[in-house]
Design brief:
The protein is built from 14 helices and 2 strands, in the order E-E-H-H-H-H-H-H-H-H-H-H-H-H-H-H. With 383 residues, it is mainly alpha-helical.
C-alpha cells in the first residue's frame, strides 16, 4: 500500500495527489515506505530479543526441578553474595552467636525468620582450623617420624570437609530451630548407624564377576552401590526427621547433611587407615571430593523427605510421592555415576567436578524452596 509522504494517509495505487492534503505523490514512495516499515520491524524485533532473557540449560534444569518443589521459575544463586561474609573479619562473639541456636530461648518466632539467602562464614574458619591441624600432624609424622601423629592425621583428614560442610548447612538454616547439640548427635549416631544399615543392605547385593576380577565397577554394580548407600542413609535421616518432628525443608536438609557428613567422615577414616603408604594421597583426594559426595547426597534426601512431609506426621507412604522420588533418584544416579568407571574427556577429576556442581545445583533448588516456605508460612499466618 502507498502512503502520502507528507501526511501519511493511505493512497490508492494509481493516485497522483493525496486526497487529504493535496500533496503530489512522489515516484518510489511505496518502495520507500516498505523499506521504512521493514527497518522498523527489524528494530522492534531486535529490541524485543534484547529484552527477552536467554533460557539456557541451567535455567531450564532448575526451572524443571523447581516445579517438583512446588515453586516456579529458574533458581539463580548469587554465589558472590552468598559467600560475601567469608573474607570479612568476624569476632568471637559472632561465632558463638551462630552456634547458640535451636534452644527454647534462642529459636526465633516465625515473624523474625528471614526468607533471604543466608551468608554463612563460620564454616570457612572451621575448615581452616582443620587444615592447620592436618598439616601440623603431617609435619610431625614426616619430619619427626612420630607414628603417634598418624591416628590424628586420619581423624582430621576424614572429618575436615564433612564437618565444615555441615556447619555451612547449620548456618544456612533460616529457622534456627535445631540446636548444635542435636546436630552433633545426628552426626555421630546417625553417621555410624547409616554405615551399619548400609553394610546390612550390602548382604543382599551380588556384584558382577567383571567388577570382582577387574576392579572396575560396571554400571549395574554402580547403581547397586548408589541404591544401597543412599537408602541406608535415608532410613536414618527419616528416623531423625520423625524423632525430632521437624517441619521445614531447611530442617530436613540440615538433618540429611548431618547424617551424610557422619557417613562420609567415618567411611573416609577407614579408607585412609587402609591406604598404607598412600595415606596422604587418599586423605587429600577424599577430603577434596567430600564437598560433593555423601554430605550433599544425603542433604538432598533429607530435603526431599520434607517436601512431602512438611508439618504432617511422617509416614513411609509419603516417600512414594513423585516429589520425593525425583530428588532421591537424582541422588542415587549421581552416586552411581561417581562410582562408575567412566570419565569425561578421559579425566576422572573432570567427572567428579561436574557431579559436584550438579549436586550443589540440586541442593540450591531445595534450599530455595526452603526459603520460599518461610514466605508461604508468614502469608498463611497473617491470613
Amino acid at each position: 500500500m502507498n502512503f502520502c509522504s507528507n501526511c501519511g494517509r493511505p493512497l490508492k495505487a494509481d493516485a497522483k495527489f493525496c486526497t487529504e492534503c493535496g500533496a503530489p505523490v512522489k515516484a518510489g514512495n511505496n518502495a520507500q515506505t516498505t523499506t521504512n516499515a521493514a527497518a522498523t520491524n527489524q528494530q522492534t524485533a531486535a529490541t524485543a530479543n534484547a529484552r527477552t532473557p536467554r533460557h539456557g540449560l541451567y535455567d531450564s534444569a532448575t526451572e524443571t526441578l523447581n516445579k517438583y518443589t512446588g515453586e516456579s521459575g529458574a533458581v539463580r544463586v548469587n554465589l558472590k553474595d552468598l559467600f560475601s561474609e567469608v573474607f570479612k573479619r568476624h569476632t568471637k562473639d559472632e561465632a558463638e552467636t551462630v552456634f547458640i541456636a535451636g534452644t527454647r530461648t534462642t529459636t526465633p518466632q516465625l515473624a523474625d525468620v528471614s526468607d533471604e539467602w543466608a551468608k554463612p562464614w563460620l564454616f570457612s574458619r572451621i575448615l581452616v582450623g582443620f587444615l592447620v591441624a592436618f598439616f601440623a600432624l603431617l609435619f610431625m609424622a614426616t619430619n619427626f617420624q612420630n607414628a603417634n601423629a598418624i591416628p590424628g592425621l586420619i581423624l582430621v583428614g576424614a572429618f575436615a570437609v564433612p564437618v565444615a560442610g555441615l556447619v555451612f548447612f547449620f548456618e544456612s538454616n533460616a529457622f534456627n530451630d535445631i540446636s548444635l547439640f542435636e546436630v552433633l548427635k545426628v552426626f555421630f549416631i546417625g553417621g555410624v548407624f547409616s554405615l551399619v544399615v548400609t553394610v546390612f543392605l550390602y548382604t543382599f547385593v551380588i556384584f558382577s564377576v567383571t567388577s570382582q576380577v577387574t576392579g572396575a565397577l560396571t554400571l549395574q554394580d554402580s547403581l547397586s552401590i548408589g541404591i544401597v548407600e543412599e537408602l541406608g542413609k535415608l532410613i536414618i535421616v527419616a528416623y531423625f526427621i520423625k524423632r525430632l518432628n521437624v517441619q521445614h525443608i531447611l530442617d530436613g536438609i540440615l538433618i540429611g547433611a548431618a547424617v551424610g557428613a557422619g557417613f562420609a567422615a567415618f567411611e573416609t577414616a577407614g579408607y585412609i587407615y587402609n591406604a598404607g603408604n598412600l595415606l596422604l594421597e587418599v586423605a587429600l583426594l577424599r577430603g577434596l571430593t567430600a564437598i560433593g559426595g555423601h554430605l550433599v547426597w544425603a542433604a538432598i534426601g533429607g530435603g526431599a523427605v520434607m517436601l512431602v512431609k512438611r508439618a504432617k506426621p511422617f509416614k513411609v507412604r509419603q516417600l512414594l510421592s513423585t516429589q520425593f522420588l525425583v530428588f532421591f533418584v537424582l541422588a542415587i544416579l549421581m552416586h552411581a555415576a561417581w562410582d562408575w568407571d567412566v570419565t569425561i574427556l578421559g579425566s576422572s577429576a573432570l567427572k567428579m567436578l561436574a557431579l559436584i556442581v550438579v549436586a550443589w545445583i540440586v541442593v540450591f533448588v531445595l534450599m530455595n524452596a526452603g526459603l520460599k516456605e518461610v514466605d508461604h508460612l508468614k502469608t498463611q499466618t497473617s491470613n
